[in-house]
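Side project, low priority. Logging it here so it doesn't get lost.
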Amino acid sequence: MTRVRTRSLVRTLALTGAAVALGIAASDGRGKELDEEAFRAGNADRGPLADRFLGGATELGSIWASVAAAGVLAAAGRRRAAGRGLAAAGVAWLAGQGLKKVFMRPRPYEADPSAMRLLIGPPKATSWPSSHPAVLLSFLTVASRELETGRLARTTLDALAGTVGASRTYVGVHYPADVVGGLILGKAVAAVFDRRG
């Protein structure tokens, strides 16, 4: 058991370090320039269908969506998956909020409002990391592990979290590095909950 916990802890620390390194790299100089270029590409208008789809999908990463999903799992008799998934989502949300206070990166609509499209109401917290993909990916990873889903299902769920992450750039509230940082953070939190090592 100690060996399993040690491996999970090492994975968590390595992933968290990678996320923080990305946040630092995207905060200044060439890294920031590349991130802003990628933001402009990701925020480009792709028509009303993309606006509706990604504008709706973006909220699947909210903590409230994880609460609702946990409620559905619990009602279906999968209380352990619901509880552990929701605990992971909560930890990811708290970690994201804490890191936002450390990095204090302005949102794209604050940094350069004339050069982007904002498709949803502006969130209040700062930009790095994006909590939506962190929350969703941690919930899905932990819950699917508890449900013993197959590889295809896990890959599909990871893709869903990636889509929600991409939607955060599309709707104008996060830079791509915020999203990638959030996805890495989500996996880092999920590793804490991994009993398999």
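Brief comment: The chain has a mean pLDDT of 93.
Revisit when time allows.
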